[in-house]
Structures are given as C-alpha cells and as structure tokens.
Amino acid sequence: MAREDLLIHCSAQETRVAVLVNGVLQDLHIERRSQRGLVGNVYKGKVVRVLPGMQSAFVDISLERTAFLHVHDIFTARQDDGSFKPIEYILHDGDSVMVQVSKDPIGTKGARLTTTISLAGHKLVYLPKERHIGVSQRIEDEPERERLKHLITSLMPESEKGGYIVRTCAEGATADDFQTDMKYLALLWAKIAAKAGVSSAPTLLYQDLYLEERSLRDMVNEDTDRVLVDAWDENIESLKGFASQFVPAAAGKLQKYSGEIPLFERFGIEAEIESALARRVELKSGGYLIFDQNEAMSTIDVNTGGFVGKRDFGDTVFKTNLEAARVIARQIRLRNLGGIIIIDFIDMEKESHRAAVLAELQKAVQSDRVHTTISNFTELGLIEMTRKRTRDSLSHILCETCPLCGGRGEIKTAKTVCYEILREVIREWRQYPEAHEFCINASQSVIDLFLEDESQALDLTQEFIQCPVVLEVEPCYGPEQYDITFQ
Question: Which of 6, 135, 361, 409 is within CB 3.0–4.6 Å of 227 for a Cys-Cys bond?
Fold first, then answer.
C-alpha cells in the first residue's frame, strides 16, 4: 500500500508543497504571494470586444491583459442538438458577465475564462448553474459510483438549481460528509451571488484559497499518512482551524515540523527541484533524458548513454525505454509541463516492446491530477501527448530568460562576433567615408581574439578602409554585445 506524505513549507514570500509517495517526490507546487495563481477565481467581468470570426470575446477582469472567453466555454451557448449558439447572439460589447478563470495567463496569452462556475469543497465540487450529478472517473467501482450518485441526489433539496461532482477522495463517504460540504458550498455561492448583485464590472467576486489550504482540501486522502508543516506557529494554527472546519480528515494528520534541517532539505526536495530545472536527467540504467521546453511544445529525447546491456542491443533499448517512461511521467508532473509534449523514445523493432513501453507510460501518468492524453506511436516512432495547461511551469516560476542568449540556449562564438564586427566596420565606412578612426567596444573575449588569432583580419580591414581601428574592452558587455563608433 502506498504511503503518502504531504510536506508544506510556508514563508512570508512563498508557499511550497510537495507530495511524497513511499519517500519519492511525485508532485510539487510553488506559489508566491506576489504572483498568486488566478485559476478558480470568480469575477464580474466586462465584455470589451466580441469577435464573431473567432467565436470569442475579450473580457476585462482588471488584469494587465484582457482575458479570453470562447463560445464553447459559455454555459448558455450549448443548444439541445449539441451545437453552439453564435457568440454574437449571446454577448455584446459592454455586457457584464460572471466568469471563472480556468487557465492562468501564460506567456503573452491572457487568462482563459469560463461561465460554468465550479466551487471546490473537500469531497464535492459545486456547479451552481448546472443541475448535473457526476462522479470522478478515478472512482472505477461501478456499484460505488451508483451509490454516490444516489446519495447526492437524495440529499439535494427540490429547490436546488445546481449540481455536484463527487471528488475522488469521497469514495466511501457518508451522508454527513457530503452535508458538511454542501452547507459550506451553498454559503460560499450565496456570498458570491450577493456581491455580484451590488458590484459593477470589472470586480473580483471570489478568490480561491491559498496553496497551503488548497493542498489540504485537494491532496489529503485516505493514503495520506501525515502532513508535515514547516511554518510559523500562527500559520500552523490557522491551518489547523481550516482543517477542523472544512477538512476534518486532514486535521488529525497535521504535524508541526521542528527539525534543525529545513523541511525540504531534510527530505531531499531541494535537490529534486534543481534536477527538475536541468535540461538533462540521468537514468539509473546509465541512459539519460533531454528536456527542451518552448512556447509551442515540449520535447523529450531518450538516449542509452552508457547503458550497454548484457545480451543484445534490442534488449538494452527496451529496458532503457521502460525506465524512461516512468521517469518521464514523474518529471512532467514536477516540471508541470503543459500543452503538446513529444517523446522520442529510442527506436524499437519489436511491436511487443513498443506496446509495453506505451502501457508503462500510460500507467505512470494515471496518478497525475492534471488531465493527460497519450497517442500511440507515430510512423516516425514518436509519442504525442497533451497535458492540460492551467498554470506556469516550474521553470517559468523560478527562472527567467537568459539575458546573454535570449532564451536560445547558446551564444555566438567570439570568432563569429569578431567577423560580424569587421563586416559592420566596413558597412559603416562605406556609409561614412569621411571617418578617420573607428572604435570597437566589446567584451574581453572578443577583444582578446582581435589581439591574437584575428589580428591579421583586423590589419587587413584597417588596410582596406585606410584608417585605424581602436579596440576597447567594455567589462559590462555580454559575449554578443558590441558598439562601433567613429570620428
């Protein structure tokens, strides 16, 4: 039986949450106070512009960029035959609309919105505008699914206009468990609706819980052995109060961590974070993975590395790919990669080997809380998968684009920059033939190359333009930066 530990580290600046399964890190979340995620927030927004050609609308919800609402995300747009009413018949410029953020702003894209409001409790998700009873797909036992549906239906008053989705942690729940959630969610929705009635757009109606509270609500289950919290006493007392009121199952598992070594260091999480930011990940077999992430997609390349096997090459490849499938699923969760992901496993000749690797990957992603879809091997031997993107990846939270390479991952060589400078000198000379001296300001490595290996090229250039070229080191310049001035 899997043993889960939930680790929570709180500081004044950020909260970090880690999920360990049998001592191995399986999930990681980081939230900074100054950059809180917006997913789950409910707003009264103002329609800025309706785009019939895109069947979308831009909505002002008081963010830096207007948010995006597609017709498929408008609850009232769906018709009985499954088609969607044109958005221009539903929304108009200047309209007020209650919306919820379904995706955080990522890169240059604004937040993604939906009008299907959902409010999460511990065991239930409340849908105040949709009379629907659903059960998490992770609850696979059909008799239990039917029991839960019948129980929720019997507890709902006839006047109830909304519906519920039963969460995975509600398996085996009783009527009392559900009634606690129902009362809390009904009160929460009443407050939101009341505020919406007296507020003008755009305005925030409801902000989702902080990460430490969401982790208790969403991540604690029957397999959770303990919840270790490294925080100030007042934070811990606040969490205990929240758990006692809304997540009783978590209240008895909360423990204050008081070790001398910081919590995340004690359990090796800091090292795992560094590994999850690296481009290369080593496999125990001797193989390795290469992760490349960009705006369009993420790619993962599997290599045998130093693993040579004991029998034949086909067996070596198969074992490497099997291990890689398990590591890839875990790294995708830790890095929070979203969107399109392409995996280039090492080519396998046997169809049985490809089927086994695909099955291993599908099994490994089952524990992922984020919806993931995996395709079969393509003709080129690649696996395509998609993972719902709701928040920034780990690297986007913790890192920024390199100011030297601009995100390329590589920089021009000093020799390349030298030749580029010499071409630019000649271009400037042709444009300003009256110049009688040129001055090159560049980094130390470029100037050193001009004085050594490329001194002859510099001499030839001076001879061609018939005027001297002065070299000056600019200590603050990067490898590709330079200036050319003339007198």
Answer: 6
Which parts of the chain register pLDDT below 50?
none
Task: Give the C-alpha distances (Å, rounded to integers) separating 101 from 38, 199, 208, 234, 456.
Answer: 6, 18, 10, 30, 62
Sign of CA dihedral 114, 368, 1, 22: negative
**174: its two tokens:** 């009783």
pLDDT of amino acid 160: 85
Question: Do you find a cis peptide bond into 202, omega within 30 degrees of 0?
Answer: yes
CA distance 69 to 87: 10
Residue 311 has what pLDDT? 61
Phi-psi region of 203 (alpha: psi -120 to 50; beta: other; left: phi over 0): beta
CA distance 109 to 114: 16
Question: Cβ distance 124 to 167 under 8 Å?
Answer: yes
Would the pTM count as exceeding 0.90?
no
Are the C-beta atoms of residues 56 and 42 closer than 8 Å to each other?
A: no
Helix (H) or strand (E) holding 215: helix 211-219
CA angle 317, 318, 322 (to 5 degrees): 115
Best CA proximity match to 188, nearest among 306, 17, 40: 40
